[in-house]
Design brief:
Elements lengths: L1 E11 L3 H13 L7 E5 L7 E5 H4 L8 E8 L2 H19 L4 H18 L1
Parallel strand pairs: 1-4
Antiparallel strand pairs: 2-3, 2-4
Length: 116
């Protein structure tokens, strides 16, 4: 399984110092705590999906690639975070294309880092 994290990862009830440790562990595939992650949906017609990290340990996900945009300790927190992400992007852009907007932000951030 391959995991990439969004540059400005959304987090529900997770302190900033823990968030950084979680990102490193997620990207190395070494996370052992129970969390829920919010990812861009595997199908391009959908926007976001919520997964329990425990579920991702199943064999069916071994070759999967995930782009994580948010993390939460509990499922309910992940649901609130999805609502927050969608609301924030809709307020900012007046369109419901969450997936495209997050990917655009990620690309722009990478480009600005590469040119500085």
């Amino acid at each position: 399984m391959e995991i990439t994290c969004y540059y400005d990862l959304y987090a529900d009830e997770i302190p900033a110092n823990e968030k950084d440790e979680i990102v490193i562990a997620l990207e190395k595939g070494e996370i052992d705590r129970e969390l829920h992650i919010i990812t861009l949906a595997q199908g391009e017609r959908n926007q976001l999906e919520i997964f329990s990290l425990g579920r991702l340990k199943q064999q069916i996900f071994s070759d999967a690639t995930f782009f994580v945009v948010g993390i939460a300790k509990e499922y309910e927190g992940a649901v609130r975070l999805v609502q927050h992400i969608v609301d924030e992007i809709y307020q900012e852009t007046a369109h419901p294309y969450v997936r495209e907007h997050l990917l655009k932000r990620q690309r722009e951030t990478r480009l600005s880092k590469d040119t500085s």
